[in-house]
Design a protein that fits this description.
- The chain has 451 residues and is α+β, with helices and mostly antiparallel strands.
- The protein has 14 helices and 21 strands.
- The protein has an eight-stranded antiparallel β-sheet. The chain has a five-stranded antiparallel β-sheet with strand order 5-6-10-8-9. A four-stranded mixed β-sheet has the order 1-2-4-3, with helices on one face.
- The longest helix has 15 residues.
- It is globular, with a radius of gyration of 21 Å.
Length: 451
C-alpha cells in the first residue's frame, strides 16, 4: 500500500513533523501496513488529539478514518457495533433522530471512537457515568503480528485496560461495541449559575452533583484576590418532552443548528494579549445572570466550539498547548488555587478555561481520577514550556497528573509520578508488542516504551 509523506500536527498545531501516512479502507490493507516491514507506527483518527500523541516523526502513521462502517445496532439494548473510524458526529447524525446519544462525549463531536477509547475520553457527566471505556462492551485490537484479539472485561482483560487511555501504543483498535444512551429530546433542561470565586464554584458543583447528569464551568483564570476563580457553571439533564415548550415538542430531536462561523486566517498575537483576555473574561462573567433556568439545544451545550470552523487559528501560526490537569478530591481546592494564582501572576490568560468534576475511574493510563480537572489553552510563546514545567510540579506534589491526549511537552521524568501504574502497563505492553512496533512522537518523548 502506498504512503504519502505529509506534514502533520495535532489540533494545537504544535509540534509539526513529517510522517509517512497510510490510509487503509479494508482490514487486509490495514494488516499489510501493520505487519509490513518492521517500521514503527501509530494509529491516527480524526487528528483531534492536541499534541503529539498521533504523530510519528519520520515514521509511519496509519489513518483509520476510512474504516468507519456501522455494522449493527440493537435498539432494545441500545448497543452499536461499528468500526473504530466511526466518529461521534456520524453517530449523532444517524441515531440522535431515533432518540439515542453517545454515553460519553468530549467537547468536540469530530473524534473517532477508536481514538476516543485510546484517549479514554471523558465528558461533562464523568462524576455520574465515568469515562467512555465504562460503556464499551468490547473492542478488537490488531497487534503488531497482525493477530486480532477481542478485548473486554472478561476476555483479555489485561489488554483491555492497558489499551484504554494508552494513546494507541498497544495496537490498532479496529472494531467495537458500545452502549448508547436513550434520550427523550435533543434539549437539556438546567441552570446557569454564577460563582464569585473558587469556594463558591466548588460549593455549586457539590450542591448540583446529585441533581444533574452534566456539569461544567467556565472559569476566569486571570481574576485575583477575592474573585480568584470566579466561574459560570452550566448544569443540565436531557429534557423530557413535558419540560419542553409546546413549539419544541413538535420536533424534539431537530433543534435549529447553531450559526456557523469560521476563523479564515491565523490571528495576530495582540488578540491574546493579557488585557484582551482580561476584558473578555470580565464581559463573559457579567453577561451571565445568576441562577437562570434554561432549555438549551444539545449542540451549544456539548460542542460550543464546533460551530467555529478552524478555531485553533485563534492562537496564531505558532499554535498552542492545551494544559489539562486533575487533582485528587481532597487536594483539588488547594491545587486549583495554587495554579490559578500562578497563572494570574504570569499574565498568561486563557479564553478557554474549563473546570469539571470527575468521579470513579478505571484504566491503567486513564487520565481521570475522583477530583476536579482544569483545562486551559496557552499560545506558544517564549517561556511557556518552563512555566508549564512549574505547573507540573505543583500538580505532582498534590498527587495529580496531566492528560496525555492534550500533552505536547511534559518531561519524561515527571510521567511515573503522575501515572503510578506505568510499570504494570509496560509489562503488558512488552508482552503484546515485544518489539515496540507501536510508537509515537509522544511515547518516545516521554520514554514510555519498555526497555
Amino acid at each position: 500500500m502506498q504512503a504519502n509523506r505529509t506534514r502533520l500536527s495535532g489540533w494545537g498545531r504544535y509540534p509539526v513533523c513529517d510522517c509517512e501516512v497510510y490510509r487503509p479502507e479494508k482490514l487486509s490493507e490495514l494488516r499489510s501496513v501493520v505487519t509490513g516491514d518492521g517500521q514503527r507506527l501509530i494509529a491516527r483518527g480524526a487528528g483531534r488529539a492536541y499534541g503529539d500523541a498521533a504523530l510519528n516523526a519520520e515514521n509511519r502513521v496509519v489513518d483509520v478514518e476510512r474504516m468507519n462502517r456501522m455494522l449493527g445496532f440493537d435498539a432494545d439494548s441500545a448497543v452499536l457495533r461499528c468500526e473504530a473510524g466511526v466518529t461521534i458526529a456520524e453517530i449523532l447524525d444517524v441515531f440522535l433522530p431515533r432518540g439515542f446519544f453517545p454515553p460519553v462525549t468530549p467537547g468536540t463531536r469530530y473524534v473517532t471512537l477508536g481514538g476516543s477509547i485510546a484517549a479514554d475520553v471523558h465528558g461533562k457527566n464523568h462524576h455520574r457515568d465515568s469515562s467512555l471505556a465504562s460503556h464499551v462492551l468490547w473492542f478488537d485490537l490488531m497487534l503488531a503480528s497482525g493477530e486480532v484479539k477481542r478485548c473486554s472485561r472478561e476476555e483479555n482483560a489485561d489488554l483491555f485496560w492497558a489499551t484504554v487511555g494508552a494513546m494507541g501504543l498497544t495496537g490498532v483498535i479496529i472494531e467495537l461495541e458500545i452502549r448508547l444512551r436513550r434520550i427523550a429530546s435533543a434539549y437539556l433542561e438546567g441552570e446557569i449559575i454564577r460563582a464569585g470565586n473558587v469556594d463558591e464554584a466548588f460549593a455549586q458543583f457539590e450542591a448540583t452533583d446529585s441533581r444533574y447528569d452534566y456539569s461544567v464551568a467556565w472559569i476566569d483564570c486571570l481574576s485575583r484576590r477575592g474573585a480568584l476563580g470566579r466561574s459560570v457553571l452550566s448544569v443540565g439533564n436531557f429534557a423530557p418532552l413535558e419540560a419542553l415548550p409546546a413549539k419544541l415538542r413538535q420536533a424534539p430531536f431537530r433543534p435549529s443548528p447553531p450559526s456557523r462561523l469560521s476563523v479564515p486566517f491565523d490571528l495576530p498575537g495582540f488578540v491574546l494579549a493579557p488585557a484582551s483576555v482580561r476584558a473578555f473574561n470580565a464581559a463573559y462573567y457579567l453577561r451571565h445572570p445568576s441562577a437562570a433556568r434554561v432549555i438549551t439545544p444539545y449542540e451549544p451545550f456539548f460542542y460550543p466550539l464546533d460551530s467555529i470552523d478552524n478555531w485553533n487559528r485563534i492562537y496564531g501560526k505558532r499554535g498552542f498547548v492545551q494544559y489539562q490537569c486533575v487533582w485528587p478530591l481532597e487536594q483539588s481546592r488547594e491545587g486549583l488555587v495554587e495554579v490559578l494564582e500562578a497563572i494570574a501572576k504570569s499574565g498568561r490568560g486563557s479564553f478557554l478555561a474549563v473546570l469539571k468534576k470527575f468521579g470513579a475511574q478505571e484504566g491503567m493510563l486513564s487520565f481521570p481520577m475522583p477530583g476536579y480537572t482544569l483545562a486551559l489553552d496557552f499560545p506558544m510563546s517564549g517561556g511557556l514550556p518552563e512555566f508549564l514545567d512549574r505547573l507540573d510540579q505543583m500538580v505532582v506534589k498534590r498527587g495529580g497528573r496531566v492528560y496525555l491526549a492534550k500533552d505536547a511537552r511534559l518531561a519524561p521524568e515527571t510521567l511515573p509520578a503522575m501515572y503510578p501504574n506505568l510499570g504494570g502497563w509496560r509489562q503488558i505492553k512488552a508482552s503484546a508488542d515485544p518489539n515496540n512496533r507501536f510508537s509515537s512522537s509522544l511515547s518516545r518523548r516521554l520514554r514510555m516504551e519498555p526497555a
